[in-house]
Description:
Layout: H1 5-17, H2 34-46, E1 50-54, E2 65-70, H3 72-81, H4 84-96, H5 103-117
Antiparallel strand pairs: 1-2
Helix pairs in contact: 1-2, 1-3, 4-5
Amino acid sequence: xxxxxxxxxxxxxxxxxxxxxxxxxxxxxxxxxxxxxxxxxxxxxxxxxxxxxxxxxxxxxxxxxxxxxxxxxxxxxxxxxxxxxxxxxxxxxxxxxxxxxxxxxxxxxxxxxxxxxxxxx
Length: 121
């Protein structure tokens, strides 16, 4: 399964927006299967953006995790991806340059755009 940065973005925003700081027990997003959400929950934990527990069973089609909360790095990433205009601009740059980017490069690009918007560059 390919990593989907749009789904990663939706998930970190949904987790941060949840009351009390705890992730929603079940996360569902239009256009995404439960397997996709479960796998991307695993990716969020693996990348250090969230804390969670392994929910993979013998019948799971992919690794699955239940997200508990975002980490500091997850909140930082959420701040960088939350603005729709900045997100679309960053993803446009990525598409123009080949369409794929690592998480670290995407974060750097978003932070650079954020700095520009704040007049810090």
